[in-house]
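Weekly modeling sync, notes
Attendees: S.R. (lead), two postdocs, one rotation student

Agenda item 3: backlog of single-chain predictions. S.R. asked that every request posted to the team notebook include the full sequence so nobody has to chase files. The rotation student volunteered to paste the first one in as an example of the format we agreed on. Action items at the bottom.

Example entry:
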Amino acid sequence: MIYDFVIMGGGCAGLGAAIYAARFNLKTIVLAKRIGGLIQDTHLVENWPGIISSTGLELINQLVAHVKNYKVPIKEEEVIDIKKEGGVFSVKTNKKTYQSHTILFATGTMRKPLDVPGEKEFRNKGVSYCATCDGYLFKDKIVGVVGGSDSAAKEALLLSEYAKKVYIIYRKEKIRAEPINYDRVKKNKKIKIINNTNVVEIKGDKFIKSVIFDKPYMGKKEVLIGGLFIEIGHIVESALAKKLGVKLNEKQEIVINENSETNIPGIFAAGDCTHRPFKQAITGAAEGTIAAFSAYNYIGNKIKSEC
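Predicted structure, as returned to the notebook:
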């Protein structure tokens, strides 16, 4: 079987693309090493039009149900290689190989590690990358969040529901949260922001016990904490695109035009793996939708040229 459209990625961009691809009658399949992507770890989503407040997992479950309603198969498989053979893309996963006339990179990103001594040793032993997943384990403990983005602020707010104290540890002068979340952080008596400071080491025995700062805080460089959440950005999942000759920018993000097209005909991209500066669930879904329309037009033009 040759598919019309193979979507790599199971987040908002990939699932949004799948819904519209089905509506365009494209024979479509979704392949993702983790259905739902990173947004399913988000505690609250309050900027998806029409839904005042939802967890990330609830939103993803609704999107998955919508895709399945169109009978589009969703496979939890990791794509490990892609080749173009005889005018058709061959997409190899850890389980099987699929062929398609067009492909979509909606591969998103993975969380960036802190890369300090102790991080690997205490991963899942107090070092975490997801407050939604692990926050409940830190009830009545002192925890830290490393990072200064809106995501870091939201992680701290969620953790404050469990922990007795939350430090936001940021290397610059002021955290970059959205105004609404910045105000929530400032008003939360459990949260303390430590600016202009880096974590340089994580210490403990069987479980994390403290972190070492690069400068003193309250007279000491070593601060006792029972958990550390890393939220310092993401690494773009674009290695396979690069291998195919897809144009990337200096951040290794996939460069697309207003039609979600890359520099290679038949290859499209959407969501957090692209170079678009404003990365949100809703913009990713929109880019995926546009990609599906572009794939539909591409296939139609290809059929006409071959007739």
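Discussion: group reviewed the output briefly. The two ends are 21 Å apart (CA to CA).
Action items: rotation student to repeat for the remaining queue; S.R. to check formatting next week.
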